[in-house]
Design brief:
By secondary structure, the chain is of the alpha+beta class. Helix content is 29%, strand content 11%. The protein has helices at 6-16, 71-79, 109-122, 131-135, 164-178, 195-198; strands spanning 24-25, 33-34, 141-148, 151-157, 184-187. Helix 3 (109-122) crosses helix 5 (164-178).
């Protein structure tokens, strides 16, 4: 998307119209003044598009394997890419809590962190934690942000093959089937659910 700033607009106007005002005054008579105005139009030869490069370093430019490539090639490509980091949400010290759907776990931060750790492993095809997934361009990760009463707030980052709303729904279903007191699972910023967020590295 091209943005034109006020300065660029002024430069454009300046190159399109040129004003020349000549004032001549005679030393003999103060009343003899000549004014001339010349209007010239530009041929647009010096006009160039303004580049909006402020976000170009955030776009994912990695090369990935194709879906039909072998698992070995996918893993090789994926091994060259960093897995999504797990932000320091305290989950690194919490062991995964792998329990079947329908369990009745208590709602507290440690339990949510443990079940989320298990979710990352069990729903692994959604995320970029494995080299094979990263190899085909799935670099997405999920982080715990906090609890707001019975609402779990998460952060989605990276690229997903599925729509981000679908990813969030799958995570929410996983958590709610094991911790039934959770009434909602949401993201900290609604922008994280957009297609645009999927293209940001």
């Amino acid at each position: 998307m091209m943005r034109i700033s006020a300065i660029a607009l002024l430069c454009l106007l300046e190159s399109t119209l040129s004003f020349t005002i000549l004032h001549q005054s005679s030393s003999l008579s103060a009343s003899s003044t000549t004014s001339t105005r010349t209007f010239l139009s530009s041929d647009w030869s010096s006009f160039a598009a303004l580049e909006d490069d402020e976000d170009t370093d955030l776009v994912d430019t990695n090369t990935y394997a194709k879906e039909e490539d072998s698992q070995e090639l996918k893993a090789q490509v994926g091994a060259s890419l960093e897995p999504p980091s797990i932000d320091d949400d305290g989950s690194s010290s919490i062991a995964p809590i792998s329990v079947p759907a329908g369990s009745q776990l208590e709602l507290d931060e440690d339990t949510v962190l443990g079940v989320l750790n298990a979710c990352r492993a069990e729903l692994g095809t959604l995320f970029g934690y494995s080299a094979e997934n990263r190899g085909v361009g799935i670099t997405g990760g999920v982080d715990y942000v906090g609890l707001d009463g019975p609402i779990v707030v998460l952060r989605l980052k990276g690229r997903y093959w599925h729509q981000r709303t679908t990813v969030l729904d799958r995570i929410a279903n996983y958590l709610q089937q094991r911790i039934p007191e959770i009434i909602e699972v949401t993201v900290e910023d609604p922008w994280q659910l957009t297609d645009e967020a999927n293209e940001v590295w």
